[in-house]
Amino acid sequence: MTKKTTKTGKKPAKTSASKSSMVKDPLTKQQLSKRHGQFRSSKEDMKLVKQVPETPQTTSKAYSLAFDDREFMTREELRPVRLQLELLKTEMLMQEAGIESTVVLFGGARIPAPGAKPGGANEIQNKNLKAKAHYYEVARKFAALCSKQSKKTGYSEFVVCSGGGPGVMEAANKGAAELGAPSIGLNIVLPHEQAPNSYVTPELSFQFHYFAIRKMHFLMRAKAITAFPGGFGTMDELFETLTLIQTQRAAPMPVVLFGEEFWRKIINFEALADEGTISPEDLDLFKFAETAEQGWNIIKDWWKLS
Q1: Angstrom distance (rounded) from CA 247 to CA 138
Q2: CA–CA separation, 236 vs 215, rounded Å?
Q3: Based on C-alpha coordinates, what's the Rg of the chain?
Q4: What are the two backbone dihedrals, phi and then psi, of residue 239, each rounded to the nearest 5 degrees?
Q5: Residues 6 or more apart whose Cβ sits within 8 Å of residue 278
Q6: Beta strand pairing status for 222-227 and 183-188?
Q7: What does the alpha-carbon distance between residue 190 and residue 266 come to, in Å, rounded to a whole number?
Q8: With left for phi above 0 and alpha for psi between -120 and 50, is residue 193 left, alpha or beta?
Q9: Cβ–Cβ under 8 Å, residues 234 and 107
Q10: Of the listed ranges 19-28, 89-98, 111-120, 139-148, the one predicted with least confidence
Q11: Burial of 66 (0-12, 13-18, 19+ CB in 10 A)
Q12: Which residues of 24-62 are buried (b: 16+ CB within 10 A; e: fewer)?
């Protein structure tokens, strides 16, 4: 058989395709033995891709692996996929950490620790925020009580969960950390307050793009919901919880509002019942508490804990 030549009589140069076919699998036998099934894994292919020669074809965005293409993954049409991924990532890591149930603390990011300078927009706000600084301590002590119970279960049940930010959220994670207990932080990308507080367990510190998915994770494992004085976010989270319990979309659980004076000043619950927009029995969906011990006793009695 004669060797193939070009019109000039020279042997053809090796193409990029022939080079790429010579790429060796960088994986060891031990790594291959960890495969689930016989198909090559995505991680294995990502290692191989890095060895492919650079050509106009291989450097084109079209050639990149779909799941490794950030520009593709952030396209408008991929929103349903991103929603699923955001739900799945946190769920898988929670399962791997052995988290079975949580106690969720909602509350204002602007409530300062005692002695800290409030960040209000004017003197009136600063005065009111300073007067609420004691709720930081209540949240910290309450989280400690939850964590003592959680320790009895190997930190699988009644794990403290907050929004991961400052204020009441920081107090919640701090109360757990001071006892050496893990705690969860469900952060959301915002123009402000983006960084998680330093007391969140790093392996349980999650970041969300979608508020809806974040709120699902607040409730998916919750055995109790607590709400401290806060703003729109706290109201949103509280009323969604009450709505889901009211409509039996979520199982009944203790819902504890810390600071009765604040809540009754901000929301006239009885007026809603008087107007007929909620049922009188809906007022029994939540209870008020002032101290950490009162709040924990409501949860303790509900779940008949020792």
Answers
A1: 31
A2: 10
A3: 27
A4: -70, -30
A5: 246, 272
A6: unpaired
A7: 25
A8: left
A9: yes
A10: 19-28
A11: exposed
A12: eeebeeeeeeeeeeeeeeeebeeeeeeeeeeeeeeeeee
Q: How sure is the predictor about 27, in pLDDT bands with cuts at 50, 70 and 90?
A: low
What beta strand segments (E) does the chain contain? 102-106, 159-162, 183-188, 205-208, 222-227, 255-258, 287-289
Exposure b/e, 147-171, CB count within 10 A at least 16 = b: bebbeeeebebbbbbbbbbbbbbbb
Is the entire prediction scored with pTM above 0.90? no
- Nearest to residue 20, comparing CAs of 58, 46, 63? 58
| Tokens matching residue 44 | 């294995």
**Cα–Cα distance, 180 to 202 (Å, whole number):** 13
pLDDT in tens, 220-238: 999 999 999 999 999 999 9
Q: What is the pLDDT of residues 40-65, one digit of tens each?
A: 889 888 899 889 999 999 999 999 99
Nearest C-alpha neighbor of 181 from the set 206, 209, 153? 153
Question: ∠ at Cα 10 (8, 15), nearest 5°?
Answer: 115
> Cβ atoms within 10 A of the Cβ of 197, count?
24
Delineate the domains of the chain, giving CATH numbers in brackets: 83-303 (3.40.50.450)
